[in-house]
Design brief:
disordered N terminus, mainly alpha, Four Helix Bundle (Hemerythrin (Met), subunit A), Arc Repressor Mutant, subunit A, 9 helices
Length: 250
């Protein structure tokens, strides 16, 4: 994109927000680390161009290059020159590359435990159910409805290795379409922490099938303007994830 404003419906909009003056480097680094931790750009794929990143974050190209240099020094990205060059991601959620090699963890932390995990799960449920309710209560245009359907379809067809990234994209899109930038911004941080915890438990095929049924019901409720239905489906969805995390991590 060529302007300074992110399109309201794209997958990066909730994360790559303009940074505050006076802390551009630190906040820009945090934002791009969130892109990596959320899996919005998968292993081996290219980050948005320097121009686009600088425009979205509203920082200078010099500052952006300093940020990218830090990420490269940490082994999280690599820079390639030439016609098909750019900055390519070496990090993948869970700490392994698709070839099975160990990969660095981008800002990963130890799995939350006890009260910390309970607090995270409660806050996640509040944000997720609120986003679902707000989305269903809005009049979404044709493009926004199509975006939700596309995100849903991508999760249905996803191989296991890509599922978490595409699941994250669907949930981030719901947060972004809620119409509340503050909610969307808060959710990105919470989702990154939730993904850190989810990366420490196995992907269960039966659970994924159940989640997909809930995703379908959720998107249907949002598109149809069923506020109560959307909220209830999301509450059940969050409760199921919470049960798995408590079972494996507590």
């Amino acid at each position: 994109m060529t302007g300074t404003e992110a399109a309201p419906d794209d997958e990066f909009a909730a994360v790559l927000r303009p940074v505050r003056a006076g802390s551009g480097f630190e906040e820009a680094l945090e934002r791009i680390l969130q892109v990596l931790r959320l899996g919005l750009v998968p292993y081996g794929e290219r980050l948005p161009s320097e121009r686009e990143l600088a425009d979205r974050l509203r920082i200078s190209r010099v500052t952006l290059r300093e940020v990218l240099k830090v990420l490269q020094d940490q082994g999280l990205v690599e820079s390639r020159r030439g016609r098909y060059g750019g900055t390519f991601v070496l990090y993948t959620a869970g700490g392994l590359s698709p070839e099975g090699r160990s990969a660095p963890v981008a800002g990963g932390t130890a799995a939350p435990a006890g009260a910390e995990l309970e607090d995270l799960l409660r806050f996640r449920e509040v944000l997720e159910t609120g986003a679902a309710e707000l989305c269903a209560g809005r009049v979404l245009d044709a493009g926004q409805r199509a975006l939700l359907r596309d995100c849903l379809t991508a999760t249905v067809d996803a191989p296991l290795g890509d599922y978490r990234r595409l699941d994250t994209r669907l949930h981030l899109t719901l947060a972004e379409l809620s119409g509340s930038p503050s909610l969307a911004a808060a959710y990105t941080g919470v989702r990154a922490s939730v993904n850190d915890a989810l990366d420490r438990i196995p992907l269960l095929v039966r659970n994924l099938a159940h989640s997909q049924a809930q995703h379908t019901a959720l998107v249907d409720a949002v598109v149809e303007g069923d506020v109560e239905g959307a909220r209830e489906v999301m509450r059940e969805h969050c409760a199921g994830t919470a049960s798995l995390l408590r079972g494996f991590l507590l």
